Amino acid sequence: MEHAREDRMPDLVAALARARSPERPGPDTPAGGAVRTWPGPPLAVPQAGPADLDLHLLLRLSLAASDRSGRLRPAPSAGALHPVDTALTVGAGCSLPPGRYGYDPLRHRVHHLGPAPHGTPPGVTAELSVTARRTLSHYGHRAWPLLLLDTGHAAAALFLAARALGVPEPEVRLDGQAESPLAAVHVPLPGGHGTPAPAGTPATGGPADPPGAAELLARRSCPPPLRGTPPPGALRAVLTTAARAGAGDLRWSAAVGPPRPGLLAPAADGTPRRYASGEARPTLAAWAAGQAWIADAGAVLLAHGCPADADAPHIRRTHLRAGFAVHLAHVTALRHRLAARPVGSWQQADLGAALGAAPGRDWVVHALALGTRHADEENTP
Q: In terms of Cα–Cα distance, which of 65, 117, 88, 94 is closest to 167?
């Protein structure tokens, strides 16, 4: 019962304010199981027929662990703790019979939970919730923003996997209105018509050229340091991808170093424009839980917004969307042969106040550190 209380969303306004404070987390606590315990026997995901939506491959490309420890997965996670749980509502036309299923990403198995609700559309809807204890075990009071960002990354991984299978663009729900599930992704059938996104939902900003399976399986967060200034064309592509996918409540910038250090933002035509001069990376390193290597990163993509007086739906929406957009930007960076690593934990990161604007209005929510070289390359003779 105590663990169930941990997984219940707290007063999110107070939780975010505390996470943004300089207070340090306490000692680690037990993380519990690496995946949610679903009822019933585990079932293999069948191979798809010629006209079926291939759930086996969809889940392999998005959520399934690729090593026995469970750390290596297509979607990154703070501390490799992977708190996101996935329930599938399967309609007609899929490689699983219609019904409700819980997914085990370590064993790549599903557990049948019951029949599909009446009116379930063809295809599959993945509902994403979290087991907060996994992330709380290491990050303590800093966990809740990270849980939301991780959920956004998982939604983006499902979106990209669906595009790799050649289906119409999935419908992604990241509106922040619900505490559980936090997000949902509906994947339609191949050759069908996608479900229109609700009015007011920003465009996903996914790649015009859908990724391939090998590309998705190969993506990884590069270990620091990430040195080397990205070429202008690559930086523009990453910034444009993030701005399109994270439209709405968020603003996007890139902190760059010499020869002209400063902050860049995308103009209407996508060309980065300089809106602040000066070296920002050492300050970002201090704000990002003291990760000193960020001061030497080639560039740092920043998602910012979410003012101090934001309500819980606004907090959920901006963090979910930031995780989603940074994931798509990460794939774009790798396509341009950049090294990239998401950065999710931010304290006292009031970017607006640092630039002379009113305090409490423009906080760093998420980031993607970029470089042309990473640690493994630097250690190679």
A: 94
pLDDT above 70 covers a percentage of the chain that reads 92
- In whole angstroms, what is the distance from residue 160 CA to residue 177 CA? 23
The partner residues of 305 in beta bridges, in order of sequence, read: 363
Distance between CA atoms of residues 30 and 20, nearest Å: 24
Residue 310 one-letter amino acid: A
Phi, psi of 337 (to 5 degrees): 60, 30
Q: How many other C-beta atoms can be found within 10 angstroms of the C-beta atom of residue 347?
A: 17
Is it the case that residue 381 has pLDDT exceeding 70?
A: no
Question: What span, in angstroms and rounded, lies between the C-alpha atoms of 107 and 137?
Answer: 23
Scan for tokens 């119409």, then name that residue.
168
DSSP assignment, residue 248?
T
Q: What pairs with residue 112 in β-bridges?
A: 101
Q: How far apart are CA 4 and CA 314, in angstroms?
A: 24
The backbone torsions φ and ψ at residue 369, rounded to the nearest 5 degrees and listed phi first, read -80, 140
Whether the pLDDT of residue 198 is over 60: the answer is no
- DSSP lists the bridge partners of residue 184 as 127, 173
Residue matched to tokens 């306490």:
26
Instruction: Indicate if the pLDDT at residue 209 is higher than 60.
Output: yes
What's the rounded Cα separation, in Å, for the pair 337 and 84? 28
**Nearest Cα residue to 163 out of 130, 131, 146, 185:** 185
What pTM did the predictor assign? 0.94
Cα dihedral 353, 356, 357, 359 sign: positive
CB 323 within 8 Å of CB 150: yes
pLDDT at 28: 97
Local structure of 227: helix, strand or coil: strand
Q: With the CA atoms of 287, 22, 19 and 238 taken in that order, what torsion angle do they form, in degrees rounded to the nearest 10?
A: 0
Q: Helices 132-139 and 143-164, interaxial angle, to 10°?
A: 130
Locate the DSSP E strands across the chain: 43-44, 84-90, 99-104, 109-114, 124-130, 171-173, 183-187, 251-256, 262-266, 272-277, 299-305, 339-343, 363-371
Q: What's the CA gap between 8 and 124, in Å, rounded?
A: 26
